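ingest -> validate -> predict -> emit
validate: passed (alphabet ok, no gaps, 123 aa)
predict: started
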Amino acid sequence: MHDQVIAVPKNGKESQAGSSAELLREILQDEQGIQADTHIGYDLALVSVWVGLVVWCDGEWYWWRAGWDDRGKRVLYARHPAGEPSRAARRIAFRYADLRSKHPVSGTIRDLPSPGAAEEAGT
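emit:
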């Protein structure tokens, strides 16, 4: 289950950013078991992974918030070439695991039936 929001440019062509983001989303799901959503438009794309983890893509690079510099009072970012989506997905999976440990799923969301559970129950 994933959602994809696309804003198509006037020329009607999907951007390289969109293709790279969708490929990353697929690899996150297939290789890392992580569900994510893509949001594509205006030569940038986002892969929404978890609370505090949104991966930006311009078709050449993926980048995401990797932490906070208390001394410099600024956000730290990690980046990875879009030509290596499997390696980027692995790095993102490490960040995802770190954030999941700090921001677990709320009880309300955890108790909701998943779409897969409804299909298995025959509804």
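The longest strand covers residues 61-69.
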